[in-house]
Structure formats: C-alpha cells, structure tokens
Design a protein that fits this description.
The chain is of the alpha+beta class. It folds into two domains: 4-133, 2-Layer Sandwich (D-amino Acid Aminotransferase, Chain A, domain 1), CATH 3.30.470; 139-311, D-amino Acid Aminotransferase, Chain A, domain 2, CATH 3.20.10.10. Helix content is 27%, strand content 27%. The chain contains eight helices and 15 strands. It has helices spanning 24-28, 55-69, 77-89, 139-144, 170-181, 237-248, 260-264, 296-311; strands at residues 4-7, 10-12, 31-40, 50-52, 101-108, 126-133, 146-155, 186-191, 196-199, 203-208, 211-214, 253-255, 268-273, 277-284, 287-288. Strands 7, 8, 9, 10, 11, 12, 13, 14 and 15 form a nine-stranded mixed beta sheet that branches. The longest helix has 16 residues, at 296-311. The two termini are 24 Å apart.
Length: 313
C-alpha cells in the first residue's frame, strides 16, 4: 500500500476514513496534531523500511500539550510512537532512494458534544494517522531562497492554545494563502506586542554577527529569565534539531524576544519545519536580507540537517 490511513484501531481506505458528526474535533476544534517526515532507514540496502524523524520528540510534545490543555491525561507516548512506526511500515512511500512521506497524527476530544454532555467521564479520544506522499518542494526554493510577506493577523501570547499544535489553524492558513497570492512562500507573524512569533507554519531564525537568534518558544520563558508574557511560539522539533546542528559546528543560538529589525538587519534568515527542514529567506516583502542570496551558513546548516535526517535512528 502507498497512501495509508489508520482510524481508531483499524486500517481504512481514504474514502472510508470518517469521524462522528459529534466528534469534538469537528464541532469545537478540540484536538491536536503532529506532522512528521518519514524517510528510508540509512543502511537498509533495499530501502524497504522507513522511519519518522524524531518521532519520540513529536510524541512528547503532543503529550505535553494534551495534558496542559486538558484534552486527555492518558496518552501513552511509547505506544503512540510504536503505532506510528507500524502504520508507516504499511506504506510504500518510504521505499526507494530519495523517498519521503508526510505522516500526520491527529488526536481529538472524541465523540462528544461539549455543549450538551453532562457526563463526568470524558470519551475516548479519536486517533487518526495518515501516511501520504511528502510535499515535493522545487529545488530552487533552497538554491535561491524565498521571499516572505508580513501577515496581517497577530498572535496573542495570552491565548491558552498558542504555542500548541491545535486544530485551530484556520487563521494561519488564511495568512499563508494571502502570502502565496503575493508570490511569497510564507508569512511572518508578529505578536500583539509587536515582537516576532515566526512563520504561519514555521519557526524563525536570524544570523547576526556570527550568532543565531530565534524567538523564545512556549515553555522556555521561565528558564530564560522570566519574560513578562508567555510565548505563543511553538517549540518546533526541527527548530530543536537545527539548534543542535548549529552548536555542532560552533555556532550558538540565543532564544529571546525578537523584533522586525532583528530580521530586516540580519545577515541571514531562514525558516524551519518538518517539511522544509531549513528554508533560506532572501527577502521580506521588498526588503532584501543581507546580500539578497542564500547565505553560506544557512546552506551549511541545511546540509547538516539533511545529514541528521539520513543518519538518526
């Protein structure tokens, strides 16, 4: 099988993949998701097996968000990880050199109308996993870099679900579509405080004076000195890997509140997520970044990330 879908304990076809009309994810956007990248295992000569990059970190983030937001206290991280690996094994999308698959895990509040239920016992969550072909981004995106827009919407640090990967992604996708209509690959989101958040679907980095900076993510505030407000920034899994990759080549990363000037005056800027890895940014609206081309450090860091993708177990 190539495209594979698993829903609540069984494999189904794409046309059979259904949830209840009373599922809390559909009625109230009560749910979380993780998007992951699966590739062939390095050293597997036949390239018949695939693995999900840092699946354990994705599951730990999901479990943390589910507990913090009150979705469920019963997520079993190890069991979910094994389930994802089992579903990926059923797909042919990670077989062959250069193969890659997009893996999506969705967990909702289950079959429950929250506005009418009087039950004290929460329902079992709905769990869905799909394995689809990975997005094939044009090589030019990475060789020449991309231009990004500035989003109209603002992220609210006081929003309870900010900094978590909830099903409420509508506003982000609207801004991403608006950016695309301008010929841009992403949209830079500011907070209501005018500090930067990142992209609509990505984390933000800037290189200035030989050091990296990135906006503080949710959960990092107190450890970094107790910023006044919580952060609405998602602690990205690829973000984490890139910070480690930068450290391995002697470049540190400062996590702090960032302004638009930090980006516009940067030597290099790039975005990270599970689909792109490291995506060079060469312009924000009409303003070129640095020399207007892909920076040497960004290119080097992208290669380091690709090495991690191939080699990590």
């Amino acid at each position: 099988m190539s495209e594979v879908v698993w829903v609540n304990g069984k494999f189904v076809t794409r046309d059979e993949a259904r949830v209840s009309a009373f599922d809390a994810g559909l009625l109230h956007a009560v749910g979380l998701f993780e998007t992951m990248l699966a590739t062939p295992i390095e050293g597997d000569e036949d390239a018949t097996r695939g693995r999900v990059f840092r699946v354990h970190r994705h599951m730990e983030r999901l479990e943390r968000s589910a507990r913090t937001l009150g979705l469920t206290d019963g997520l079993k991280v190890r069991a979910l990880q094994e389930l994802i690996e089992h579903v990926v094994e059923r797909s042919e999308l990670t077989r062959g050199a250069g193969a890659a698959a997009r893996v999506r895990l969705t967990v909702t509040g289950g079959d429950l109308n929250l506005l009418s239920s009087r039950s004290e016992q929460p329902p079992d969550p709905t769990v869905m996993i799909s394995v689809q072909p990975a997005t094939r981004n044009p090589p030019e995106m990475f060789e020449r870099g991309v231009r990004i827009a500035v989003a109209s919407a603002r992220a609210n640090p006081l929003g309870a679900d900010e900094g978590h990967k909830t099903l409420n992604y509508w506003w982000r996708l609207r801004e991403l579509r608006a950016a695309s209509l301008k010929g841009c690959a992403e949209a830079l989101v500011l907070q209501v405080t005018n500090y930067l958040c990142g992209g609509t679907v990505s984390n933000l980095f800037a290189l200035r004076g030989g050091s990296l900076i990135t906006p503080t993510a949710r959960g990092e505030e107190e450890r970094l000195g107790g910023e006044d407000l919580p952060s609405p920034v998602l602690p990205g899994i690829t973000r984490e890997a890139v910070i480690e990759a930068a450290a391995s080549i002697g470049v540190g990363c400062s996590k702090r509140a960032m302004t638009i000037a930090d980006v516009l005056d940067a030597d290099e800027v790039f975005l990270t997520n599970s689909s792109w890895g490291v995506l060079p940014v060469t312009a924000v609206e009409a303003k070129s970044i640095g020399a207007g081309g892909v920076g040497e450090f960004t290119a080097r860091l992208r290669n380091k990330w690709l090495e991690m993708l191939r080699s990590e177990a």
